[in-house]
Amino acid sequence: MPKKTAPEARPSRPRRPTDRVAPRPPAAVSSPRRSAILALAAQLFAERGFQATTVRDIADAAGLLSGSLYHHFDSKESMVDELLASFLDDLLARCRGIAGQRLEPREALERMVEEAFDALPRHRAAIVVFQHDAAHLARFERFGYLKVCAQELEDLWVGVLRRGVDSGDLVCPEPELTYRFIRDAVWMSVHWYRLDGALTTRDLSRHYLRVLVEGLAPR
Amino acid sequence: MPKKTAPEARPSRPRRPTDRVAPRPPAAVSSPRRSAILALAAQLFAERGFQATTVRDIADAAGLLSGSLYHHFDSKESMVDELLASFLDDLLARCRGIAGQRLEPREALERMVEEAFDALPRHRAAIVVFQHDAAHLARFERFGYLKVCAQELEDLWVGVLRRGVDSGDLVCPEPELTYRFIRDAVWMSVHWYRLDGALTTRDLSRHYLRVLVEGLAPR
DNA sequence: GTCTATAAAGGGATAGAC
DNA sequence: GTCTATCCCTTTATAGAC
């Protein structure tokens, strides 16, 4: 995979007219075929990582030749861009909703955790890709929003934790550290949680909240 | 990066005499130069991911041309192999030591968490690479040991948790789930923990143990 | 909307001179 | 132990026929 050309905002080859200037005139902005291809690409990105997935892999999965993909998408980057942006849009909207309701802090904490596990089945591939490839992608201008969104999420979470500390509802010495602790534990479950297993995402959120809120020491 | 040839146990090109049959006669098995190159490679793997790091990147960092790398190492794979194997050897030895001491379960839990944070500065690059690339590498025969080691680690941890439940020292409804919870929260910190920051790894382990053992609800 | 064919560049790895 | 030079393959992406 061409490390220097593929996921770069400014390709090193001479700029061509189609280089992300317009949404590529002939490509329908949205179609069932397009969505299906994106879903397949998302699955492959999640399984192998963005960089290890070639456009030929995607084309194979969709029953096309690689060149035909470019009728639907500008580039491999565009696909991962759409995938991540729509995930973050959805997640942020929901978290803003919860944080904005001014629930009791402990209730808000629970709702935030439940929300994350709830998103697992809907955004499985995007979550995996975000965890695996966001750090790399975020180095390119086009993906700058990844950092912005992550920061807003952190702010929403830390706000909830702080309110809990202020009200005496939660004991949490370092809200930023605690946020990372929760975030990492919760989102990493996407790597091993099986939709077809015995556990529902509700079971998972209940278990994680129990450990998180009650702790491992007997009360 | 040639997806099908690079990290594969059986390259698709015709098998050549040097294909991992012997440790490549002329290459010194260990030398300061070799170690220095491996350290540089490890850093690059951690920063960009194994696949996104080219042998030319590594050679540049070492002040060599790419061809010269092959005097020291068989392949890019061999480098990541050495990196991961030596990390896992060290970590497993220490965890076996702790688990084998038959400490009080709560004490053992604390020692295991401290051990993990302790390994952070020593094995920073390897931990990042393990998290980022192990799933992909483990699909190839050569890296089968990654799964074996991960399983042994899980067994050691779950053993400690189970003993805690049996003795009433810990409340932990699902030891496997709890292990994953702890593992993911602890090891993910490698992505944001800064050695040169205000927090020592000891601070980190204390904070995480507090949340984990005492919980966020006031006692 | 898909295919054929191919461009342009980068990838891992090798051989042999020095 | 490093360099020169290069092989051979894969990659993303394009152009134009159908």
What amount of the residues of chain A lies in strands?
under 5%
Class of secondary structure makeup of chain A? mainly alpha
The largest inter-chain interface, given as chain pair and residues per side, is: A-B, 45 and 46 residues
| Rg of chain A, alpha carbons | 20 Å
Query: How many β strands of chain A by DSSP?
Result: 0
The end-to-end span of chain A amounts to 54 Å
Number of alpha- plus pi-helical segments of chain A: 8
What is the averaged pLDDT score of chain A?
89
Helical proportion of chain A, percent range = 55-70%
Low-confidence stretches of chain A: 1-28
Q: What best-fitting shape of chain A do the alpha-carbon axes yield?
A: elongated
SSE order of chain A: HHHHHHHH
Largest sheet of chain A: none
State the assembly state of the protein chains: homodimer
Describe this structure in words.
The structure is a homodimer of 219-residue chains. Chain A has helices at 32-48, 55-62, 66-69, 76-100, 105-137, 145-167, 175-188, 201-214. Chain A is built from 8 helices and no strands. In chain A, helix 1 (32-48) packs across helix 5 (105-137) and helix 4 (76-100) runs parallel beside helix 6. With 219 residues, chain A is mainly α. The longest helix of chain A is centred in the middle third of the chain and has 33 residues, at 105-137. The interface between A and B is large, with 45 and 46 residues. Chain A binds a DNA duplex (18 and 18 nucleotides) through helix 3.
